[in-house]
């Protein structure tokens, strides 16, 4: 399909007796931000792991830019232009901030030499507002800075698609606002983004489309407004929809 | 970026270079023997550092490459009359081939499991060679003294093996430095810090750590051949001495895991310390216990080793203490 950067087709994943994902299908068009929401334990991070090859799905297909990438190891997926920022920040602690980001540039889609990677890494750090931390050890950053480091590392790989796993979690309101600004700028440069987010107001305002996962199944797809009004979604988050409606009316 | 213009290589390189020069200038046999052992351990520790320090895979079986490569090279030169240079190279290549096979089996393991498996490999290699008839079984092999004639007699041959070891040790340092300053090395260090994240960022970890493992195996194979050539014989107990594996590991930790200068200083200091322990009345039976205690103290209190500690304490020295 033209214009589709990512197609996920009937992906299921079972861990022993636990059905973590069941027949999940969705498409992401080029240049869009797709928000992935759902209650805790719904399978969002598992879905990311399947997409970027941390583990293969039990069944189903993942198609990235027209190519089947199902079951490829994560480094092969990265080289095809898919980069990820983790929910639990995972800086390479004994490397400097700059070196961390250089790993992304050296081994991502464009596989740069060290010298070129250093200048790309500086650009990426400037873009996320960490330029002044470049020579420090990554282990010494605070949480908000580590989140930005994750983002810079993913950006330095110059991917076609960014997977952002809760990059706003753990940030205070002003940090959230400035991170949102950064993400909008990134989208402005033509990146496609798939983001998991719990901060509802943020994800609703920034996404073009939203998909909702509950107990491993996709329960709603649509624009932010459509999804917000969907009774199934409200039930997944709050329990009984009628009760919710009453509460909201009060 | 020309990596040689930066200064991190020079302290280690010059140190080893000067030691060799002094020995060659003084031409004393006892000094040469002491220096031979010292250079050998520097070479072994620095090559272990490539897989253990850079890549984060703690290998208790490093001495297997020394033993296997050394046995193979020795076999070629004593049984088939290969020249020392070629036999040593063949020993290195053999060690790489063995690393490839071992790596395919154990490099998929991580952390403690990898370390445990390498202890097993160490024991298995010794048991195998003890029962392998072409290598002389448990008795080992002795050199045919005519093999020394082509180098102008035994005396000259010993000097030749020293000079070759000196060159090999310098080569280990240069290679180790180039790896550290390369894109490949950045990938290895990323694997050390967090292998899964490194892979998500595109580092081809299974391939890269295999390469690092092969590289770290090549030099012990060379060194083993030179060492056994110098000794004139090779036995399973000398070639697969688990205690030696441990000592090389302690040297790396003592000097600074993952640094270039660390294994050099670690080997030097450990040698001095062992000499003292073995000759002191009180410690002579407690030498290994003391080694264990040192390892424990380093891991607990100075995980970066001597050089790591200096780098932390005096950041301005960093460009010299690579």
Q: Note the beta-strand portion of chain A.
A: 25-35%
Question: What's the CATH C level of the largest domain in chain A?
Answer: Alpha Beta
Q: How far apart are the first and last residues' alpha carbons of chain B, in Å?
A: 16 Å
Q: Under CATH, the topology of the largest domain in chain A is which?
A: Rossmann fold
Structural class of chain A: alpha/beta
Question: What characteristic shape of chain A results from the CA principal axes?
Answer: globular
The domain count of chain B comes to 1
Q: Structural class of the helix and strand makeup of chain B?
A: mainly alpha
Spatial strand arrangement across the major sheet of chain B: 1-2
Mean pLDDT of chain B: 92
Number of helices of chain A: 10
Helix percentage range of chain B:
over 70%
- The tally of strands of chain B reads 2
Total count of helical runs of at least 4 residues of chain B = 15
Query: What does the overall shape of chain B look like?
Result: globular
The ordered H/E elements of chain B are HHHHHEHHHHHEHHHHH
Summed over residues and divided by their number, the pLDDT of chain A gives a mean of 90
- Total domains of chain A, how many? 2
Main beta sheet of chain B: strand number and arrangement? 2 strands, antiparallel
> What Rg of chain A do the Cα atoms give?
18 Å
Helix content of chain A: 25-40%
